[in-house]
Amino acid sequence: MLTKERRPDFRILERWATSVLLEAGAIHECEKHGWAKDRTDPHARAEAIRIARDEPLPGLSPKEAVAAVRAVLDAVGDTCPEC
User: Fold this and answer.
1) Residue 22 burial class via C-beta count within 10 angstroms: exposed 0-12, middle 13-18, buried 19 and up
2) Strands (E) located in the chain
3) What is the pTM of this model?
4) How far apart are CA 51 and CA 80, in angstroms?
5) Quick check: 69 and 17 in contact, CB under 8 A?
6) How many Å apart are CA 52 and CA 55, to the nearest integer?
């Protein structure tokens, strides 16, 4: 019997990408409301991309992992929507 590796659920993928961005310092949380905010730090972004490429979520290729991190980063603004 062959087993096929399952692709991660999109919510898991988004949480993983967010954690990579937080770890690299590319995003941070609004102190008052908890929304993710972009730090606009090119070095931190490059580090997040490197982490995604070198340590992709199981079930993803490095290219897919980088795309997921970029998608989350593109969705995050530099201001909190509630502030």
Assistant:
1) middle
2) 27-29, 36-38
3) 0.86
4) 26
5) yes
6) 5
Q: Say if CB 59 and CB 8 are below 8 A apart.
A: yes
- Domain boundaries defined on the chain: 10-75
Q: Identity (one letter) of the amino acid at 15?
A: R
**pLDDT by residue (tens digit) across 39-69?**
999 999 999 999 999 999 999 999 999 999 9
* Type of residue numbered 50: R
* CB-based contact 69:23 (threshold 8 Å): no
State both tokens at 11.
């919510």
Helices (H), 1-83: 10-24, 42-54, 62-75
Counting every residue written for the chain, the total comes to: 83
Both tokens of 35, joined, read: 């929304």
